[in-house]
């Protein structure tokens, strides 16, 4: 009995309808991109400053380690 129901559902799902739109509605992609951009949290000045300080600190550590390695050899 269940196989009959599943077969009927699969047959109806496999049939294509002529009234199904195959293209996106006008402006859909623009709305999606706008909503995606609105969902991204805005960065404040502190976050940018901390990121720059961390990057600069990592660069100083790498340069200092390279200089110490060159001097010891």
Question: What spatial form do the alpha-carbon principal axes imply?
Answer: elongated
Low-confidence stretches: none
* Number of helices, counting only DSSP H or I runs of 4 residues or more: 3
Strand content: under 5%
Structural class: mainly alpha
SSE ordering: HHH
Q: Report, as a whole number of angstroms, the end-to-end distance.
A: 82 Å
Quick check: average pLDDT?
84
- What is the tally of beta strands? 0
Radius of gyration: 29 Å
Largest sheet: none
What proportion of the residues is helical, as a percent range? over 70%
Would you give an account of this structure?
The mean pLDDT is 84. This protein has 73 residues and is mostly helical. It is built from 3 helices and no strands. Helix content is 73%, strand content 0%. It has a domain of 30 residues. The relative contact order is 0.05. The radius of gyration is 29 Å and the shape is elongated.
């Amino acid at each position: 009995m269940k196989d009959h129901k599943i077969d009927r559902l699969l047959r109806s799902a496999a049939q294509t309808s002529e009234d199904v739109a195959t293209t996106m509605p006008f402006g859909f992609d623009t709305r999606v991109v706008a909503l995606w951009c609105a969902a991204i949290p805005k960065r404040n000045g502190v976050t940018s400053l901390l990121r720059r300080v961390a990057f600069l600190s990592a660069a100083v550590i790498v340069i200092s380690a390279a200089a110490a390695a060159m001097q010891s050899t």
